[in-house]
């Protein structure tokens, strides 16, 4: 039972990671355009 539940959790996590990926890619592109972003954040 636990193994089956773990597999379901992994499936859901992978699904939402795929959904969020474009957001993180876009965020990284924006951050790269800001000079010294990590030095001032």
From TrEMBL:
One of the protein's GO biological processes: double-strand break repair via homologous recombination
Keyword Chaperone: yes
Tagged with keyword Transcription regulation: no
Domain of life: Eukaryota
One Gene Ontology cellular component annotation held by this UniProt entry: nucleus
Gene Ontology terms for molecular function: histone binding
Keywords: Chaperone
InterPro entries, per the entry: NAP-like_sf, NAP_family
Transmembrane stretches, start-end: none
Family (UniProt): Belongs to the nucleosome assembly protein (NAP) family.
Protein name: Uncharacterized protein
Organism listed in the record: Nymphaea colorata (pocket water lily)
Source species taxonomy: Eukaryota, Viridiplantae, Streptophyta, Embryophyta, Tracheophyta
């Amino acid at each position: 039972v636990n193994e089956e539940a773990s597999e379901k959790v992994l499936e859901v996590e992978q699904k939402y990671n795929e959904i969020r990926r474009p957001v993180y890619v876009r965020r990284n592109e924006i951050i790269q355009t800001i000079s010294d972003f990590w030095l001032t954040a």
